[in-house]
Design a protein that fits this description.
This protein is α/β, with parallel strands linked by helices. The chain has 4 helices and 8 strands, in the order ββαββααββαββ. It has a single domain, classed as 2-enoyl-CoA Hydratase, Chain A, domain 1 (Alpha-Beta Complex), CATH 3.90.226.10.
């Protein structure tokens, strides 16, 4: 189990729980843990469906901009592929995946929700892509499975 992302299993449902208060900003460690947990959920035979959940107040507020500001362009251009890889790992889970969205799902958090097969939104949800104003939108290419 990771420090910020964990997999909880009950009655055949695997819940990928994002837990990096206060906003579940997707720092590098969290991205790596997400890829690892998604791979584990894919492989486990005791899991028939997966829910991604960030908690009652926030799903995920996107990439950790504070962390990104300390990195060089060269570093970030390499690191962006690892962020994409974590989202691709979620998108390729070969079981039904539901993003249970509450609170904010912004930027990378919104993109993570879009990697799920289904999205269920609470009545307090705010989604968006604020990075458009920064000119740093990242697309996640996913090859069809099969």
């Amino acid at each position: 189990m990771g420090e910020f992302v964990r997999l909880e299993v009950s009655d055949g449902i695997g819940t990928i729980r994002l837990d990096r208060p206060p906003m579940n900003a997707l720092n590098e460690q969290m991205q790596d843990e997400l890829a690892e947990i998604a791979t584990e959920a894919s492989a486990r035979e005791d899991i028939s469906a997966v829910v991604i959940y960030g908690g009652p107040k926030v799903f995920a507020a996107g990439a950790d901009i504070k962390e990104m500001k300390t990195r060089s362009y060269a570093y970030m251009s390499v690191r962006a592929h690892r962020l994409q890889a974590s989202f691709v790992a979620v998108a390729k889970i070969p079981k039904p995946v539901v993003a249970a969205i509450t609170g904010y799902a912004l930027g990378g958090g919104h993109e993570l929700a879009l990697c799920a097969d289904f999205r269920v939104a609470g009545d307090n949800v705010k989604v968006g892509q604020p990075e458009i104003l920064l000119g740093i939108i990242i697309t996640v290419p996913v090859a069809p499975s099969g």
